Amino acid sequence: KLGILSYTYGLNGLDSLLTREERENMVNLIDRDLIREDILSVKEEEVDLVIAYMHWGNEYHSKSSQEQRELAEFLNHNGVDIVLGTHPHVIQEVEYISSETKKTLVVYSMGNFISNQRYDTMGVSATEDGMLVEIDVVKTLPDGPTYLSNVKFVPSWIQRVWQGNAYSYRILPVEAALAGDIDLELDPVTRDRLEKSLSDTINRLHN
Question: Distance from CA of residue 59 to its chain's centroid?
Fold first, then answer.
């Protein structure tokens, strides 16, 4: 039984178009008191695991900010098991945070999944990179602990191809594409960009 929560740092200025009631019904802004209350609320439902999706951080920064790290510590201390981050548009590092009562997997930013933010349009190749996060959750029956197992990161890359009168986008699992495991013919330029994407992703995950 999973408790899934989500919060954002802001609304790109569009919150001025909403009444307070509309905003509170539509989206959760990052507020520690609210987050603490929400975590207590889902725990009253006797969930096995709490997941927080966080729209946070600085755009195009490959390292998490001090604010992200402080929020991650806060989430850990309040009982969140998994933190999945978005917004920077580039991949950021992954770490485990441990306290006396909880170990939390924190993925600070999963990068871009599908986007037109790329080297061709921005001069930034890191915005072409993303990753899927695969996690096995093990529940010990009848009343033992629930824990994470086999955490796996699948690097992805956004391929853009002009077809007819519009661009077509395809999300490629990088390692499978390079190994020839999917039906795809790679030209030398695309292969070079995939290899760079994989190398950059590995470096960002561990630095």
Answer: 13
Report the distance separating Cα 136 and Cα 147, nearest Å. 9
Confidence class for position 15, pLDDT limits 50, 70, 90:
confident
Terminal CA-CA length for the chain: 33
**Residue 164: pLDDT above 80?**
yes
| Spatial CB neighbours of 103, under 8 Å, sequence gap ≥ 6 | 76, 81, 96, 97
Q: Which of 7, 96, 4, 71 is nearest to 41 (CA)?
A: 4
Structure tokens at 26: 């539509």
Contact between residue 149 and residue 81 where contact means Cβ atoms under 8 Å apart: no
Q: In angstroms, rounded to a whole number, what is the distance separating the alpha carbons of residues 187 and 114?
A: 21
Is 0.90 surpassed by the pTM of this model? yes
What is the tens place of the pLDDT at every residue in 99-115?
A: 988 999 999 999 999 99
46-to-24, 143, 197 alpha-carbon distances in Å: 25, 12, 41
Torsion of CA 35, 96, 137, 78, to 10 degrees: -20
CA distance 185 to 177: 9
Residues 6+ apart with CB under 8 A from 41: none
| Amino acid at site 54 | M
> Mean pLDDT across the chain, nearest whole number?
94
Copy the structure tokens of residue 84. Answer: 């999945």
